[in-house]
Write a structure and sequence with these properties.
The complex is a heterotrimer of chains A (about 425), B (about 50) and C (about 375). Chain A has 23 helices and no strands. Chain A is mainly α and about 425 residues long. Chain A has one domain. Chain C folds into 2 domains: about 30 residues; about 325 residues, 3-Layer(aba) Sandwich (Aminopeptidase), CATH 3.40.630. In chain C, strands 1, 2, 3, 4, 9, 10, 11, 12 and 13 form a 9-stranded mixed beta sheet that branches. Chain C has a two-stranded antiparallel ribbon with strand order 5-6. A two-stranded antiparallel sheet of chain C has the order 7-8. The chains are: A mainly alpha (about 425), B mainly alpha (about 50), C alpha/beta (about 375). Chains in contact: A-B, A-C, B-C. The interface between A and C is large, with 59 and 46 residues.
Chain lengths: ~425, ~50, ~375
């Protein structure tokens, strides 16, 4: 048995005991697991490595913290409630079309930022009240938003996992538009109809109307929507006009939106809201820090190599199964990390397949990492957005879409060359 | 310029992490906050 | 004072101690290892000579100039484009400490991305330094990162758009020196370094530019030369020379659609013959096992042996690994062959360079035999 395997087992065991026996926050349990891996491997407590590992997510930490602030602000200012009332009033006669439209709205921030978290926390929180008013149960709503965010992350124009895989094999990000659209939009539509249509269909407008609130819309007019408008247009404009608008980055865009939100709707205590936002974000931020340390120690001790080499050691037929299992599992730590650590070796093992379709499909499968506990960023934030306490319930609801994503990804890889022949 | 703005953002987030840390009742929640604070401080000081 | 406030204060003090302690370790990466000026070095100038905009920034780096008595052709060797590829860096240091130029001029930039030497990539578990035994004692070198330190260029965009072509790459590539060429005077920190290097090539009329690299063993372009189309005749000659001496090396044309790299952009935007060389480095690979200084020096790695058995690698891999001296020897052999080949290709660009350690000598005697004592 490899010594690396023993180290890995110790790390997993310490994590489990910390998490379940001592009920520690997931982040702290990961830190302890990382420390024990470092100790067992003979590296001491290696403070430098532990802290360095946490820097892998420093930018993600800022995105999540500021997105959370923005969400609290638009919620408190009344923008969310006003907009959902207007949408329902307009589109209630055709529930299927409405659902699909809402799903595309959820995907939108993910499409232009490449971040499922950004999609769930912005557009997700925007449309969640609509789904709920339409009579879709909270858990289903959260599942829809989570998968919507993930498909937004996969859909063009920006797909970060593909870029990560591409930079590992020196493949420019060109020609991905159509394949990624084909991989993401049908699954998104399927998910929203599968999880929502039967409820939305039943609800009558008479019932709906009681929950609607047009006062905010009348009181503030379009002004109440300004923070949302500013955030979405800055996301878009920095992408389509990079030569005129400098790269602001998501954290700054979210804070600008939040700043505007203070003045464009209902009054609220901004200090209290920001404190609340960071408080809600802290468990996830702690997980990211812990995961960063965990990966650093896995790499340092050779555990990462052990996992990667064993994943690609399967014969061709089993390789597909290996992809379907290991990429989502490693995604439990991070979907971007999974794209880099496993996506690159897998695409190198699949050099005979069309590289564009294969990279897109691997990114599709990697997106499942956002549904894998303990991080499960998409599921976790979606649960938070709709107010479901236990995000595991949300994850259960995503089981069918998740299987569809995984199977579709594998089919895309198997038929990559045939598909490329049709598309290009 | 943009780097300075981002340092301010890090400062803002750090301050609220500390505010939360001080108001948490359980030590394990305080510990969770503090592991987030360390990388933020190092980036705020532009050390790492 | 409440109990929770006491514990908060204790925990915050603990955080400050960890921040201070780890911060000191991170800052230690700013200490530069000594490079000894060898007998052939006629002057050392700053890269900012060629682009004053770099002056005072951490992008400004030393250019070692070895000018021969006789005028002739000129060659630039870039080491440390990616400081996590140690053979590239060490090969350029060996040149500085040993080589004597009789005809023409040799320019060496050992720390092309000087900022990238000051940190390590998160989650890569890399050692900060490695040590090489010499007859005069130990010499130390930093093992840095692939990319510019975020402290010098931050934040990254979501997507890095290469200015000259509009090519999109993942956001962190914005700090990759070998994606930033031809560079921009008003661009990012990394683009400015690229711009300065390109200006230097244009100002000095450098005939041949060799960018030294290493690649992970699972990466297809490895133990290879990548050449711009104008440099192809020379590069083909070099590949034949190396092959006939039983040093296995591939030759690849610089892809037209992959932008921002030295072999594409320097070839397109200057008159230089632009080439790049790769050797096999396990310590930057995704399949590697335990990551430490020994792996950097020996390349011995059981995980890579297993991957080789599975047919997943693009270089042979056995229990002997790919030691640093062999990787450095390959680069030096390549550089010497390029200079000889260019000299016979165009008499006006002829250079005579001596004291480059031979492949055999470097492999048998080791890198330490070619490093000078530090005063």
């Amino acid at each position: 048995m490899y010594f690396e395997l023993i180290i890995f087992l110790v790390m997993v065991a310490v994590f489990m005991i910390g998490c379940f026996k001592f009920k520690l926050p997931v982040g702290i349990a990961m830190v302890l697991a990382a420390i024990s891996g470092s100790l067992v491997s003979g590296n001491g407590i290696s403070v430098r490595h532990l802290i360095e590992g946490s820097f892998g997510y420093i930018d993600t930490i800022l995105v999540i913290a500021t997105a959370m602030i923005f969400m609290k602000v638009v919620e408190a200012s009344g923008a969310l409630h006003a907009l959902s009332s207007v949408i329902i009033n307009r589109f209630h006669k055709r529930p299927a079309i409405l659902l699909i439209f809402l799903m595309l709205v959820v995907m939108f921030p993910g499409m232009i930022t490449g971040s499922s978290t950004a999609a769930v926390l912005t557009a997700g929180s925007l449309v969640a009240p609509v789904f709920l008013m339409l009579g879709i149960p909270a858990v289903n709503t959260a599942a829809i938003i989570a998968v919507g965010g993930m498909m937004g992350m996969i859909a063009p124009p920006v797909n970060v996992p593909v870029m990560i895989i591409g930079s590992g094999i020196d493949m420019p990000y060109v020609g991905f538009g159509l394949p990624l659209l084909l991989m993401s939009v049908p699954i998104a539509i399927f998910t929203v109809l599968f999880l929502g249509h039967k409820y939305a269909h039943k609800t009558s407008y008479a019932e709906l109307k009681e929950n609607l609130d047009f006062d905010l819309d009348k009181k503030y007019g379009l002004l109440v929507y300004l923070p949302l408008f500013v955030v979405l247009s800055l996301m878009l404009l920095t992408k389509i006009l990079p030569q005129y608008i400098p790269n602001l980055g998501l954290p700054l865009i979210f804070l600008l939106g939040s700043l505007i939100g203070i003045f464009t709707g209902e009054r609220f205590n901004i200090f209290k809201k920001v404190k609340e936002a960071i408080s809600d974000a802290l468990p996830v931020l702690g997980i990211l820090v812990g995961v960063g340390m965990f990966i650093q120690i896995m790499t340092l001790t050779g555990v990462r190599g052990l996992i990667v080499v064993n994943s690609i050691s399967l014969p061709m037929a089993l390789l597909y199964i290996g992809i379907a299992i290991t990429i989502p599992l490693f995604g439990a730590i991070s979907s971007y990390g999974s794209a880099s650590v496993l996506g690159v070796p897998f695409i190198l093992a699949l050099l005979s397949q069309d590289q564009i379709i294969t990279a897109g499909a691997l990114s599709l499968i990697a997106s499942l990492g956002d549904l894998m506990p303990p991080t499960a960023l998409a599921g976790l934030f979606a649960a938070q957005v709709v107010g479901v306490d236990n995000y595991v319930q949300v994850l259960k609801k995503t089981a069918v879409p998740a299987i569809v994503i995984n199977v579709a990804g594998i089919i895309f890889i198997i038929f990559a060359n045939q598909l490329a022949g049709i598309l290009f | 310029m943009i780097t300075w703005i981002y340092r301010l953002i890090v400062l803002l987030v750090s301050i609220f992490v500390v505010v939360n840390l001080v108001s948490k009742e359980k030590i394990k929640d305080q510990a969770n906050a503090v592991i987030v604070l360390i990388p933020l401080l190092l980036r705020l000081l532009m050390i790492k | 004072m409440k109990r929770k406030h006491i514990s908060a204060i204790i925990i915050l003090i603990g955080a400050l101690i960890v921040t201070f302690y780890s911060g000191r370790m991170f800052l230690s990466m700013y200490q530069e290892e000594p490079i000894v000026t060898g007998p052939g070095v006629s002057s050392v100038v700053k890269l900012s000579t060629y682009f004053p905009g770099l002056e005072g920034s951490y992008g400004d780096t030393d250019v070692y100039i070895m000018k021969g008595r006789e005028p002739g052709g000129s060659t630039l060797v870039l080491g440390g484009t990616h400081p996590n590829e140690p053979a590239a860096y060490i090969a350029s240091v060996v040149l500085i400490e040993n080589v004597v130029v009789k005809k023409g001029t040799l320019y060496v930039i050992p720390r092309s991305n000087r900022s990238a030497f000051t940190h390590n990539d998160p989650q890569e578990g890399a050692p900060q330094r490695f040590y090489i035994e010499t007859p005069f004692g130990e010499r130390w070198f930093r093992f840095g990162s692939r990319a510019t330190n975020p402290v010098h260029q931050w934040p990254d965009p979501d997507v890095y758009i290469h200015a000259a072509s509009g090519q999109q790459l993942s956001g962190s590539e914005t700090r990759n020196l070998n994606r930033g060429y031809p560079g921009r005077a008003d661009g990012t920190f990394t683009e400015q370094v690229c711009y300065a290097i390109r200006n230097m090539i244009n100002t000095e009329g450098i005939d041949l530019s060799i960018d030294l690299h290493e690649a992970s063993p699972e990466y297809p372009v490895i133990n290879a030369i990548v050449a711009h189309e104008r440099a192809m005749p020379i590069a083909a000659d070099v590949a034949i020379t190396m092959q006939s001496n039983e040093v296995n090396i591939g030759l690849e044309p610089s892809p037209v659609n992959l932008r921002g790299l030295t072999h594409r952009e320097l070839g397109d935007s200057t008159e230089t013959f632009a080439v790049l060389m790769e050797s096999a480095n396990a310590s930057q690979g995704r399949l590697r096992g335990r990551t430490d200084e020994a792996l950097v020096l020996s390349g011995v790695d059981p995980m890579y042996e297993k991957a080789a058995d599975l047919g997943r690698l693009f270089v042979p891999y056995d229990e002997n690994g790919h030691p640093l001296e062999v990787r450095v020897a390959r680069h030096l052999f390549g550089i010497e062959s390029f200079i000889i080949s260019m000299s016979s290709y165009d008499g006006n660009k002829a250079m005579i360079v001596s004291e480059i350690p031979s492949y055999q000598n470097m492999v048998s005697r080791g890198v330490g035999a070619y490093l000078l004592p530090v005063e």
